[in-house]
Amino acid sequence: MMSGRTIHARVLRLISASFITAIVATMSWAPVSAQEEKSPMDEEALTILKGMSDYLGGSETISFRATTFFDVVLESGIKIKAGRASRVLLKRPKDLYIEAEGDDGSATTIWFDGSKVTLWRRDANQVMSLDFEGTTDAMLDQVIEEYDAQLPLADLFYSNINKTLGEDIVSAEYVGLRMVDGVPCHQLSFESLGADWQIWIEADSTPLPRRFVIDFVADDNKPQFMAQMNAWSIGGDIEDFNFTAAFPESVEEVEFNLKP
Fold first, then answer.
1. With b meaning 16 or more CB within 10 Å and e meaning fewer, what string describes 200-229?
2. pTM (2 decimals)?
């Protein structure tokens, strides 16, 4: 998907450098009229995306729940959907808590308190940590780029979501009003370098993302990521939440590694 920090970083790992070079070269040398024909930029879609970014980015505390599905390609070549339920709490500029359970029995809790990232794999009773002083934005950049972390929803954690999602957009389209969990939402469709994505944003004074779909079209298997988000809370409801890691003394400490 979209940014050099997150989805675009994953796209770069999915397709070769030569292919990226070919895409960039084609875009650079194509006549302007041809680019406009193939890559329309719908200002309404871009405006709605920016409105969501400003709303979430301007909120000090955010919490929500998400149900996600992503494609896994088995050795046999069969593509299956794997599911995960997550709870996210974010307090800007430097506190983050994520709790996730997969349909395969995996269970993970992640804390960031402005000085350390701690990941507890509850199903294996293993914990790993990484010292990092800075903001949540900077921490996500490092974890994604240096540890090859697969965090599609992380695009929504940044303080400037519009920049994160919008850096590599080559086309944008407003699809129309659609219902998500009984809530009227603007459906927006975008093309980016290496991936296509859609987002459904509430069509009212609280422009919250309700659904998020990424198609990694540059990958031979064309995997898809889907997320449905609800239970949003914006404001001061999590002011007293403790973002310091807490886990049993019996846990095994292992080297920081985000591979499954």
1. bbbeeeebbbbbbbbbbbbbeeebbbbbbb
2. 0.83
